[in-house]
Every structure is written in structure tokens, then in C-alpha cells.
Amino acid sequence: MVPNGWELSCIGDISKTTMGFAFKSKDFVKNGIPLIRMGNLYQNKLQLDRSPIFLPPAFSDEYTRF
Questions:
Q1: Residue 59 near residue 33, CB atoms below 8 Å
Q2: What is the distance, to the nearest Å, from the Cα of residue 37 to the centroid of all Cα atoms in its chain?
Q3: Sign of the torsion formed by the C-alpha atoms of 39, 33, 20 and 22
Q4: Torsion of CA 17, 41, 37, 33, to 10 degrees
Q5: What is the pLDDT of residues 21-65, one digit of tens each?
Q6: Positive or negative, the Cα torsion across 33, 39, 45, 51?
Q7: Residue 45: enclosing H or E segment and its boundaries?
Q8: What angle do CA 56, 62, 66 make, to 5 degrees?
């Protein structure tokens, strides 16, 4: 179900995706930059509240490609 005013799209059409890089679990923090993982895809839907994982805000400068 898509909320009113929203448009259904494929992730690849609205963002860049990079696969194949694994962040280390020791780097995960309780709050910060949300990391989308395969576990967030469930029954053909993106569920960001499913086992959320975050990276430190400083990672946005170091890992700009991701």
C-alpha cells in the first residue's frame, strides 16, 4: 500500500545502490546513518523498521560511495 501523495518506484530509479561491501558489525551504533541491508527486504517490500542498523555519522565522509 502506498500512502496518499506518494509514488511507487523501484529503489534503483530513485537512488544509487552499491552492493558487495560489508560493514563490520563492531562499527554499528544505536543511532546514526541507517544502513539498508538484505534483511530490510521482506515479502517484496522495503521495511526500514525491520532489524534497523546504524553507522556513525562520521562514516558519511569516509564512505561517500556507500
A1: yes
A2: 6
A3: negative
A4: 80
A5: 788 999 999 999 998 888 888 888 888 888 899 999 999 888 887
A6: negative
A7: strand 45-46
A8: 85
